[in-house]
Structure formats: structure tokens, C-alpha cells
Specification:
By secondary structure, this protein is an alpha+beta fold. It is built from 13 helices and twelve strands.
Length: 420
């Protein structure tokens, strides 16, 4: 027997690696936030089977719900890194660590024919040559749904299922003997199902069908509410806070925040009424301003520490306003009267404004638009003529005789023809 690290959940589920003396085992995985974690397992020398683990990287590793960086593990201890769960146990040759029913390991499920894993051997239902895996148990499959199991044991179907030797589907662990009088309720253990005779009505036959099993009786653990990721931790914190906090506590918190905001406003008001206006201005600046002098301000005139204090007060006031508004909304006591009320304009009001604008444009006649356009074009032409270059005007004057027909005898001839 030797120490072995077995992955019971995660990407490498049902895989195991043995620890060798003097040689650390290196496991690389990612936590719930996607950060890489490197686990270094090193077996410790001594009479007791123990192992030392050291965590490297930026991820979070949990041992019994507590984040650790280095710890000593005993047999049966479990490390959780995001959705990966590693268990330390003793292993024989070719057999996973801490398996309770090794004779069923690797054999098929009697219902779905899938191979039994180490987790199935520890938590599923087994009886002789018959076995039901965890997935089938979660779907509502029970021993009475296996015809070959009923015929092999010659069970009276009229007998209640409390007399059936249904093994609990939990990992009992070392405390099972002390709590054997009241076995704990497990996620995969459904309430007893009363068996009806085979010659009963159609409703009885429907109840005996596997597809009609009570799925609601199986309460699987929720990964979002009880997981080890950051979402699960925040959910647990807020759930615990909501359970412990009452309306009176919220009222006290609201009063405390309002008093803190009032004190902050009083402090800011006193600072603004000083000679420097709380911004580090020169002492005679306001006096010269009252006298009518013209003054200029630059960034060097202000005190950097005073500006930082003003920004700090502004951020604190914004945070207090937001928290007070959230508490008042949770208590249902309306909006904060200390905040200015900003009137909200509805979408219908915006549409009315658009319609009035369109109506005003429709009231303007098309003739008025044409007249305005003509006047605008005429003014633009006058401005163009006024700014015309003298050289361009001279060129046009030189080419004018040629366009009119020339001069001399030819011009006189054309004039005589027009008179005729």
C-alpha cells in the first residue's frame, strides 16, 4: 500500500497518481477564476501516512473550506481548486485510493451499462452482481426498476420498499458507525416508493415506469450556491448577511449613514466658508474680488492637498448617497429627500416635441421656401461678382469683340445686311 493522489472531480476525474519517496508530484490546474495553480505533493517520512502539499501560482486552493498555501495532508483529506477536487488515500496496485467496494470497480451499471468509477463504488447502490451508478440514481432509477434484480431475489411487488436492502448512496466515512442510528439524508437517496400490484390500473403502471420517476425527490448539490469559486463565496456572504440582518438593523444602518453624510456636509460647508474657500486660495483673493479688481486663476494658486481633500469628500458623498438610496429602496420607504429631484421626461413627451417641430415646419408654405432660396442665391451671386479678380475681368473684356463678330469691313458688312 502506498500514498496516492486521486482526482475525484474536475477535468481529470477518476485519475490517480502514486507518490514516490523523495520525488514530488506536480499537478497543474486552474481555479474557478481561471488562474493557474501548481500543486506540489511530497510524501513525508514517518510511521503515519501523510503528505505535504505546497501551492504555487495566483489561484486559490481550499482545504476544508479554508484557503491555504502549504499544508500537511492526512489520508482522506481533500483539496479543492475550482471544480477540481483531489483526495489523498492509500492505494494498491492498479486500484484507486480509498475505494470501499473494489469488486465493482470497472464493471457496467445494470441500467445504463456505463463503467463503474471509484466515486460510483463509494456512493452508488450495489447488491451482489447488480449495481446502479450515480447518474442513474440522480435520474430516479431504483432497484425495483431492474427486472432482473426483482426476479433474482423473488421480491413481492406488493411489499413496501422499506424492507428492501437499499444501500445508502452516501460516503459514510469514519463517523458512520457513531451515527448509524440516524443515517444522514443523501442527495441520491429518494423517499420510499410504494409498489403497486402488477395488475393495477393505468395510473399505477405509469407510476412504475422509469420515465415517471419522481425527479424532484433528488436534490443535487448546487454548484453555484455551494461552490468554491468567487461567485459561491460572495453568495454565501450575502446570504449569511441577509439571514442575520433584520429590518431594524437596516433602519439603524440607514440612520448611521445619514448621520455620517450630514457630518461630511457640515465639514465641507465649514471648509468652503473659510478665507481660502477650502481650496487653498490666497487670503486676500476674496477681498480684492469684492473691491472689483480683475483677477486670474491658475493651477498654481490652489493647494494640492486642499484639492485632494475636496475630491475625497466628493467621492465619500457619492458613495454614501448610493448606499442610502439602495437601503431606502430595499426598505420601500421612497426616494432620498436630501437628493435633488431630477424630473424625468417620458418617451411620449419626447415624441410630442418631435411632432410639434414637424407641425411647425409643415406650417411654412412652399412658396415662402422658394422665395427665400432665390434671395439667397442672388445674394451669393452678387458677392461672387464683387470679389471677381481684375485679371479675369480684363480677359473677358479682350475677348468680347471676337464674340460680337470682329471689327473693320466684316463688321460693316454684317451691319448693312441687318439694315436690309
Amino acid at each position: 500500500m502506498s500514498l496516492q493522489v486521486h482526482c475525484i472531480d474536475g477535468k481529470g476525474k477518476d485519475t490517480a497518481a502514486a507518490l514516490q519517496s523523495g520525488k514530488p508530484l506536480r499537478v497543474r490546474c486552474k481555479d474557478g477564476a481561471g488562474r493557474e495553480v501548481i500543486l506540489l505533493f511530497q510524501s513525508l517520512d514517518g510511521p503515519s501516512a501523510r503528505c505535504q502539499v505546497r501551492c504555487e501560482g495566483q489561484g486559490v486552493v481550499e482545504l476544508d473550506g479554508i484557503a491555504v498555501q502549504e499544508a500537511d495532508l492526512d489520508v482522506g483529506a481533500e483539496l479543492k481548486v475550482g471544480r477540481h477536487v483531489f483526495r489523498l488515500g492509500l492505494s494498491a496496485a492498479g486500484m484507486p485510493a480509498q475505494i470501499k467496494n473494489p469488486q465493482h470497480f470497472g464493471k457496467p451499471c445494470s441500467h445504463c451499462q456505463t463503467t463503474f468509477t471509484a466515486d460510483d463504488c463509494n456512493r452508488a447502490w450495489m447488491d451482489g452482481d447488480f449495481r446502479i451508478c450515480l447518474k442513474c440514481l440522480a435520474k430516479g432509477v431504483r432497484p425495483q426498476h431492474l427486472p432482473q434484480w426483482r426476479h433474482a431475489l423473488e421480491i413481492d411487488v406488493d411489499a413496501p420498499t422499506e424492507d428492501l436492502p437499499l444501500q445508502s448512496a452516501i460516503d459514510s466515512g469514519p463517523m458512520a458507525a457513531a451515527q448509524s442510528e440516524e443515517p444522514p439524508t443523501d442527495a441520491y437517496t429518494a423517499p420510499p416508493i410504494s409498489m403497486a400490484p402488477l395488475h393495477s390500473s393505468a395510473s399505477g403502471r405509469a407510476r412504475r415506469r422509469i420515465s415517471a420517476s419522481a425527479i424532484s425527490s433528488v436534490d443535487l448539490p448546487s454548484a453555484a450556491s455551494s461552490g468554491g469559486g468567487i461567485i459561491g463565496k460572495v453568495t454565501r456572504v450575502f446570504r449569511r448577511r441577509s439571514d442575520e440582518t433584520t429590518d431594524d438593523g437596516e433602519q439603524d444602518r440607514l440612520s448611521e449613514l445619514e448621520e455620517l453624510r450630514n457630518s461630511l456636509l457640515v465639514e465641507a460647508g465649514r471648509s468652503s466658508l473659510t478665507s481660502s474657500a477650502g481650496l487653498g486660495l490666497p487670503d486676500d483673493w476674496f477681498r480684492r474680488l469684492h473691491q472689483g479688481d480683475r483677477l486670474t486663476l491658475s493651477a498654481d494658486d490652489f493647494s494640492r492637498s486642499a484639492i485632494d481633500a475636496w475630491r475625497t469628500r466628493q467621492r465619500q458623498l457619492a458613495h454614501l448617497d448610493a448606499e442610502i438610496a439602495a437601503i431606502r429602496q430595499a426598505l420601500g420607504i421612497g426616494s432620498d429627500p436630501a437628493l435633488p429631484v431630477v424630473p424625468l421626461r417620458l418617451r411620449t413627451e419626447d415624441r410630442d416635441l418631435e411632432n410639434r417641430a414637424f407641425q411647425a415646419s409643415d406650417a411654412l408654405l412652399t412658396e415662402d421656401l422658394a422665395t427665400y432660396h432665390g434671395q439667397l442665391m442672388a445674394s451669393e451671386e452678387e458677392e461672387t461678382e464683387a470679389y471677381r479678380k481684375p485679371s479675369l475681368a480684363a480677359d473677358e473684356a479682350a475677348t468680347e469683340p471676337e464674340r460680337s463678330g470682329g471689327s473693320g469691313p466684316r463688321r460693316q458688312h454684317h451691319a448693312r445686311r441687318r439694315r436690309r
